[in-house]
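To whoever picks this up:

The parser on our side crashed when reading a file containing two proteins. I've narrowed it down to the boundary between the first structure block and the second sequence. Both blocks are reproduced below exactly, byte for byte. First block:
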Amino acid sequence: MTSLGDYEQIKLEQEGQIAILTLDRPEKMNAFTGKMMYELLDAFDKTDANDDIRAVIVTGAGDRAFCAGADLSEGAKTFDYEARADTGEAGRTNKIDIQRDGGGRVTLRIFDSLKPVIGAINGAAVGIGVTMQLPMDIRIAADSARFGFVFNRRGINPEAASSWFLPRLVGIQQALEWCYSGRVFPAEEALKGGLVHSVHPQADLMTVARAMANEIAENTAAVSTTLTRHMMWRMLGASHPMEAHIVDSAAIYSRGQTEDAREGVMSFLEKRKPVYPVKVSDGMPSFFPWWDEPEFDWIGE
């Protein structure tokens, strides 16, 4: 594997067409800090900019934890950003930085990712350790993993935009029961509740994650995958299916004129593996990102 950055609390490595992002504080059960937040933001900037990367796997170092939540070493002032503002630990430099939830900055950055994101949840995942997973596209878990939306038991509240993500993933009733109680629950319950896609023996977890990532990387067009990711996620908040129809139509009209579409059809007819030439870095349709275009209605390129 090739290292893609010099980080202190995470690792970012490239393996073929896959990036593997590892939360790397195993002695602290990969607990979340301000430093980790900034490193994660930078890592997703790198994976977005690298056309050779087709999917990102996020996991934790060691066998004990994916991420055991916020680092509580600051004791009573752990969640008091004002009290910690002069320590520099959180990396917060102004009033807006001080007031913004760091977990939310991470989940919003993952939400904006141009590449599919697979969570390989290898152990304990509580607090931000579970909410940072929510904007990941597919989550698979080790059979030893445990999850907990423990915020109410710490005198705070769910963060990381989880009040938007969680009910959309698992339904409002399940989301509220997990958050009201703050209890820690096993991987099988996470599977039953729809939080994870599948549960696997610890030793098989990364093999399964790599297989999922490679299935995407080896068989699909990069631009099509990026469009699909954002069409699906952003339509969760649409008020009418016509919003989806408008974007679908613009995307099909645009993509249908590309070398990717021609290659997709011809490789199928010729019974060979496709080689898609269009890159995310310079081949996205002109209407992307459509959600930043207030007048976007119907676009034909």
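<<boundary where parser fails>>
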Amino acid sequence: MKEIRATARELMHGYCRVCPICNGKACAGEVPGMGGLGTGSAFTSNVEALARVRLTMRLIHDVTEPDTRVDFLGQTLAIPILAAPIGGVSFNMGGGRSEQEYIDAVIHGCAAKGTLGCTGDGVPDFILDAACTALTAAKGRGIPFIKPWEDEELLRKLERVLATGVSFVGVDIDAAGLVTLRKMGRPVSPRSAKALRLIRDRVPVPFILKGIMTPDQARLAVDSGVDAIVVSNHGGRVLDGTPGTAEVLPAIARAVGHLIPVLVDGGVRSGGDVLKMLALGARAVLIGRPFSIAAIGGLQPGVEQYLDTLTLELRQAMVMTGTASCRAVSSDILA
């Protein structure tokens, strides 16, 4: 990982410093780029909120080979870790790798380790072109997320990604108001519950909504027919001053976790962080910027190495807390 990170630091120079701790402080306000919007407080809140969560050591047990598998919408994932949807390599990551190289590394690296990579969407159109090429080559093993465009464009793009053979699709409604898209003259916008229901009715596979930060919005998502949600503030890139996702996750999980899978992203940096999010109520986590560093710095082998590192850390944390399975993580392991 040191070599991968060193290469990423060279290729992402001026866009990401590949800091020892990815906490958003050095890159505050750098959008486009890898930073958080404005003061960067929403990005840093994600990291700091999760850091405040503590694990308790529990070592009088017989857990030596913990089971890291989880079930998600009819599929079994080897680990509860997915790569979050990120696009725009040229203007967010420095262009040291092509969009296709980047998304191929994410999708195929995750598939090789028994989990799912997510693809992004945006402007220019080659972002979605690269995503569709990668998903087709992976026989649909991945989750494409489409921005909340105007209805005609949104439906057209959903149809396009469905043609790749994917088992799920998503809309990252948290992308509404992205500065980069507004600057390019391609605004995105929120959606009403009624509009979400109409979109859901047009999609023949499980539909995931990313960008939920309150229990009432989670209940609206369920009422709109979505099959899973992602608790997310878009990495702190769309609204300055939001709380960290680890702060809001428990209440959201209590509200709808018995009805649909609740995923979460924001500030996850280690296998221990993954376990914390599961204990707070998540089914699985999405990780963004660290996957970008792994993919830019090492392509598919870099992504696979990063997942191996996280899996080892997760298994160690499970043993140290007496957690036998990721399918049943108790909040009792939290201090």
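After patching the parser it read the second block fine. The mean pLDDT is 96. The beta strands are 70-72, 75-77, 81-83, 118-119, 143-146, 169-172, 207-212, 228-231, 262-265, 284-287.
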